[in-house]
Write a structure and sequence with these properties.
It is a single chain. This protein has helices at about 15-30, 45-55, 65-75, 90-95, 100-110, 135-140, 150-165, 195, 215-225, 290-295; strands at about 1-5, 35, 60-65, 80-85, 115-120, 125, 130-135, 170-175, 180-185, 185-190, 205-210, 240-245, 245-250, 255-260, 260-265, 270-280. The protein has about 300 residues and is an alpha+beta fold. The protein folds into two domains: about 1-120 and about 275-295, Probable inorganic polyphosphate/atp-NAD kinase, domain 1 (Rossmann fold, 3-Layer(aba) Sandwich); about 125-275, Tumour Suppressor Smad4.
């Protein structure tokens, strides 16, 4: 059976509105299991350990990136499989694994296609989506727990104000103890190449390090709305490095956000871990249509 860990605050408490439909769908697919809810900081990791001790072979994170990250850190080297039912606003990992919504996620769990991925490590924490240093980490540190429209509006209003005042910082990147790079940065984003580039049939895990340098106020506003939009621009100062290991030091201590949650300050070591993660993914690689959209096209 499956062990489902629900984060009741994900997506502004949306799980509480769909919980009955979710359980009914899982029962219909024959993958009903035990449901538990987190009630505080660090609960998800503890609940994951409890599920493993009970003998469950599949732990399912029902929530956003933060919930998924806690599950990943809780499974350790147990060898259990991890499933995802995305609920929160930001679910980059779920989308990269071909899981656009909770309805589709249920079908994917039932199909149970498992891939084994290398995961990254920063400090004492494991990550699978991204690590941010700079502007995005500053934003994550200020992000409100509530995700209602009014809270989002206030948050982005503050972010627009920060962008005009935020000054690029200086950093030194030590790549594999072989190369040293000195740079000014607006944001440094570190991702796992096997996760972020699943459609490209990559076979070797590397860290992708995207350094966004100095940018105009207009581009900083675009970055707030959609960071990926700048990849198509010609003007922003973007640099990409690929490595297995990097030590990042900054002139001033800067916050380090791991899968959207600030956990550390620079300097920090980030590397591909020797730990493997079993994770349930869509049979078709890359983003797929949400269940509701797919139904409309039939």
């Amino acid at each position: 059976m499956y062990y489902y860990i629900l984060n009741p605050v994900s997506g502004g408490g949306r799980i509480n509105k769909i919980q009955d439909r979710l359980k009914s769908k899982l029962k219909e697919l024959g993958i009903a299991g035990e449901f538990v809810k987190s009630i505080g900081e660090g609960d998800v990791t503890k609940l994951t350990a409890i599920g493993i001790r009970k003998g469950y072979k599949t732990i399912v994170a029902v929530g956003g990136n933060g919930t998924i990250n806690e599950v990943i850190n809780g499974v350790g080297k147990s060898g259990v499989a991890v499933g995802i039912i995305p609920i929160g606003d930001k679910n980059e990992l779920a989308k990269s694994l071909g899981i656009p919504d909770w309805q589709t996620a249920c079908n994917i769990l039932a199909a149970r296609k498992i891939e084994t991925l290398d995961i990254g490590r920063v400090g004492k924490s494991y990550f699978i989506t991204s690590v941010d240093i700079g502007f995005e980490a500053e934003m994550a540190e200020q992000k409100p727990a509530e995700t209602s429209l009014i809270h989002k509006t206030l948050y982005y209003k503050k972010a627009l104000s920060w962008s005009s005042k935020f000054k690029p910082q200086k950093a030194t990147l030590n790549l594999n103890d072989e190369y040293m790079v000195d740079t000014d940065f607006f944001n440094i984003k570190i991702t796992n190449s096997l996760v972020s580039n699943r459609k490209k049939e990559e076979t070797k895990s590397m860290l992708n390090i995207l350094v966004t340098g100095k940018m105009s106020h207009l581009n900083s506003l675009k970055y707030i709305v959609n960071p990926d939009s700048l990849k198509q621009e010609k003007k922003p100062d973007l640099s990409l490095f690929r490595t297995k290991r990097v030590v990042i030091n900054t002139l001033k201590h800067a916050p380090v956000a791991v899968d959207g949650k600030v956990l550390y300050k620079t300097p920090v070591l980030c590397e591909i871990s020797d730990r493997k993660l079993k994770i349930i993914v869509a049979r078709k690689k890359g983003p797929i249509k949400p269940a509701r959209e797919a139904a409309k096209t039939k």
